[in-house]
Structure formats: structure tokens, C-alpha cells
Amino acid sequence: MIKPQKLPIGSKIGILGGGQLGKMLSLSASQLGFKSHVFDPDINAPAKQVTNLSSTFDFMDEKGLRNFANKVDVITYEFENIPLETIKFCNKITKVYPNSKSLEICQDRITEKKFLNKLGIQTVPFEQASSYKDIIAGVKKIGLPLVLKTSRFGYDGKGQKIIHKNDEIENIVDEFSNNTIIIEKLIDFKLEISIIISRDMNGKISAYDPSENKHHNGILIESKVPANISFSLSSDAVIIASKILKSLNYIGVMGIEFFVTKNNNLLVNEMAPRVHNSGHWTQTGCIINQFEQHIRAITGRSVGDGKRHSDVQMRNVLGDEIFNINFEHENSINIYGKDKSKVNRKMGHINTFINKKGQ
After folding, report:
1. Which residue, of 185, 207, 231, is where some domain finishes?
2. Quick one: which of 248, 297, 311 has its CA closest to 111?
């Protein structure tokens, strides 16, 4: 158990990464009376539009990191592709949450699945490979259809291919054979859900209701609550997520994605040691959203009740959709302020009430 270190109001929170998640964390930090300092290589990073202080250096710039870490009272990060060495360097100067062990596990799909299986948590069947020979052997063992994924630094559908036929392997093997990859059985699942869960320094855990998610080409398109699952399955997902956080002595918010199989079994697909896209509905559907929960946890406060007061649908705004948002509808609109629109780039999100409880 980490001894709670309750930071006084006015303390500075360092955020590694200046994307939309860093922006919303900065806003919640301000809401709770804290200042924030964003560290990101991009001078135009969205979070720098709303933060008190910012630094523009590479994540491996030790001089810049040292100056940054010495100016803040605690550090967190907004995405899991921050170099592990960066987190460990900063942790020599000040506290970093979530811890480096959590980041290290979540940065590598193979390490992540082995960690989960060791806890007795089910995942899809998988094999690892680092050569053409390994790939062929792994494909034979797993069986078609399957998914080839790079073991590291993949997100939003990047670094992965679905394989239905053996001759498709020859066409893409050069793309993967120079990397360590994971070969996963392609599951014919019923639906995808995720749990947003938080843990504070006293060990208190607070979980939000599972959201039901829709992806297209690996990119999250929509999340809605409630998910179309039983209360029993929802409880099982929370129990699994809680087990993961306790095992890691985790502090902060984590997003955990699941497959729900045709037999109503839960398979953990991915873990994200941070606030999560599928948790944006909490900004409209709960008194305390995921960003406030994270700031509470890393500053030594108690995480609050994640109770949902409304049914909500969250939809991502991708690419040029940002130019066609309809402000006439009764929606909560969040625009990230990114400087360029790109195909499938997350430019914002829209929350819509499905219905309010009690109505």
C-alpha cells in the first residue's frame, strides 16, 4: 500500500503528453484547484492551450525532463507510448503515477497477456513470433482466422492485420517479420465492452458501468451505456478489473477492454494505464468523470462514486467530420483543438443523452 501523500491545493501536476487526454486532465486539475505543466514535443499540442505551464522537448531529453520534474509535485502521463525510460528518469526526481511497472506491462501486448494469464484472467489464445519461421509455426498452431499485431506501439488499428487465408500471410510477412509480433486467434465475439476503473492511495477502488463499444478498422467509433449485458457479467468485469489494479498496486484511472464471447465469457483484450476514450461518456453521465477521478487519485485524494445518472452515447468525431458538427442538437460537444485534420484522426467527441434515469 502506498502511503497517501495529499498534495495541497495549488500544487503543480506534471503531464507527459499533450493530446486531448492531457487537455481534459489539465481542465480537471484546474477544477480541483491544481496547476498543470504539460511536457510534449509538439509546440501545438492541444493540452498546451489550457495549461498553466508547458515544455516543448523530446521525451528522451534528460535536461528538459529534469527541469520539468523539478518544477512539479507529481507526474502522470496521458498515453502508454511514452518511453519507459522517461518515466523511470522522472521517478528519480518526483512521484509518477501510474507506476512504471504498469506502463511496462501495457506497452507490450505479449507481456500484457502473460501477466493476465498468470493472474488467471482469460485472454484470446496467442503465440509470439520474431521471424518468418516463427510466424508460420504460430499461424499453424493458432489456426485461421487470426490477427497479426506488432507487440509494441500499436493503437487505433495501427500495426495489425487480420488474416483469413494462408496466402494472405505471404503478402504481408515482410511487414511483420523484422518485429516481435503477437499472433492472436480472431474471436467471433458478441460485443466489445470496456471498464473504466480507478484506485486511490488508500486502496479504494471505484468503477464505472461497462460501456458497449463499436470499432471500425481498429478505431473506436462509439461507446454507450448501459452495455447490453447482464448484471452478473457486468459485476464479473469489475471484479477482473479490480484484481488487475490490486496486483499492480495501481494509482489512477485505467481503461480495460473486453470481448464478450457468444457463450457470455469475458476475455480481456487490452489494458490502458490512463484515462480512456471509451470513458468520455462519464463527462455527461456521471457527477464525477474519469478525469477528475484520475486527478483525485494521483494527488492523494479519495476517488469518488462512479455512479451513472444517465444513459449516454459517446461518438468520436474523426477527420473532416470536425467541420460538419451540428450545434443545433442537444449534445455535449468536445473539440480537441488539433492543428490539422487527418483521416481517422480523433478531432473531438460528442455525448448525447439516451435517457436520464428517473424520466
Report:
1. 185
2. 248
**Is pLDDT of 349 > 60?**
yes
- By the 8 A CB rule, do 35 and 53 touch? yes
> Residue 286 has what DSSP assignment?
B
CB 313 within 8 A of CB 351: yes
339 and 210 in a common domain: yes
Residues 35 and 166 in one domain: no
Q: Are residues 70 and 52 in the same domain?
A: yes
The residue type found at 331 is: N
CB-count exposure of residue 156 (10 Å: 0-12, 13-18, 19+): middle
Same domain, 342 and 204: yes
Structural domains counted in the chain = 3
Instruction: Dump pLDDT digits (tens) for 303-318.
Output: 999 999 999 999 999 9
Please compute, for residue 127, the number of CA atoms within 13 A of its CA located in the half-sphere on the CB side. 18
The pTM score is 0.95
**Who's near 263: CB < 8 A, 6+ residues apart?**
none
Under DSSP, the state recorded for 152 is B
Other residues' Cβ atoms within 10 Å of the Cβ of residue 5: 12
84, 90 contact by CB (below 8 A) = no
Q: State how far the Cα of 31 lies from the Cα of 42, in Å rounded to an integer.
A: 25
Q: Which three cell numbers stand for residue 343?
A: 483521416
- CATH code at position 210: 3.30.470.20
Q: How far apart are CA 127 and CA 19, in angstroms?
A: 33
Q: Cell triple for residue 166? A: 494462408
Domain coverage including residue 162 = 125-185
Residue 5 within any structural domain of the chain: no
Answer yes or no: do 180 and 196 share one domain. Answer: no
Rounded to the nearest 10 degrees, how much is the dihedral formed by the CA atoms of 42, 257, 298, 11? 30
